[in-house]
Design a protein that fits this description.
Distance between the termini of chain B: 38 Å
Oligomer: heterodimer
Shape of chain A: globular
Helix content of chain B: under 10%
Order of helices and strands of chain B: EEEEEEEEE
Order of helices and strands of chain A: EEEEEEEEEEE
Largest interface: A-B, 28 and 25 residues
Structural class of chain B: mainly beta
Largest sheet of chain B: 5 strands, mixed
Helix content of chain A: under 10%
Shape of chain B: globular
Number of strands of chain A: 11
Chain lengths: 114, 110
């Protein structure tokens, strides 16, 4: 089955700790994305990557970091610098980064920081 | 980022057609219109996209106005599983990202 895997589904952390969210895809897609969603809101782009070893900041990159060492993996680290880290985090991939490419989303990770 | 306007919510009945409107008055000639939907506590799901002419797929139809400043997503026969938030996105040519607005929350009554 091809698709995007995010783990875990729910994650709890104490304030001040860094936490890494996993995102893996077996669709052989070049582009991958991280979005954040707050209750009742649309998605906001954190980071995206068009190709291995390359990534760009999205609209709300502060307090987050990513890496893209393998085509199938795009982990997101929520650092202690992120002021409001509690949110629903969604990873997506597409064949290429562009206006015609359909994005496939993972099931999401709900992060709660207390 | 290109902006779209959608009603906050709509309601329809099961097995009836649903027409979800979207205004994208700042659209340029090369922007694509994409529609995604999001079921509760899940990631968004691609529905359909188009440029100028009307488009059909197994999930829905997309009717784009002649001046391209608005479009309508048509669910031909709604089921309870179609209850979701529907996002209309105007993607600027060459853009690398989707910009999600608030979307339309669709409720389907049995």
């Amino acid at each position: 089955d091809g698709g995007i895997t995010q783990s875990p589904k729910y994650l709890f952390r104490k304030e001040g700790q860094n936490v890494t969210l996993s995102c893996e895809q077996n669709l052989n897609h070049d582009a991958m994305y991280w979005y954040r969603q707050d209750p009742g809101q649309g998605l906001r782009l954190i980071y995206y990557s068009q190709i291995v070893n390359d990534f760009q900041k999205g609209d709300i990159a502060e307090g987050y970091s990513v890496s893209r060492e393998k085509k199938e993996s795009f982990p997101l680290t929520v650092t202690s610098a992120q002021k409001n880290p509690t949110a629903f985090y969604l990873c997506a991939s597409s064949m290429s980064a562009g206006d015609r490419a359909e994005q496939y989303f993972g099931p999401g990770t709900r992060l709660t920081v207390t | 980022d290109a902006k779209t306007t959608q009603p906050n919510s709509m309601e329809s009945n099961e097995e009836e057609p649903v027409h979800l409107p979207c205004n994208h008055s700042t659209i340029s000639g090369t922007d694509y219109i994409h529609w995604y939907r999001q079921l509760p506590s899940q990631g968004p799901e691609y529905v359909i996209h188009g440029l100028t002419s009307n488009v059909n797929n197994r999930m829905a139809s997309l009717a784009i106005a002649e001046d391209r400043k608005s479009s309508t997503l048509i669910l031909h026969r709604a089921t309870l599983r179609d209850a979701a938030v529907y996002y209309c996105i105007d993607i600027i040519q060459g853009a690398q990202k989707l910009v999600f607005g608030q979307g339309t929350r669709l409720t389907i009554n049995p």
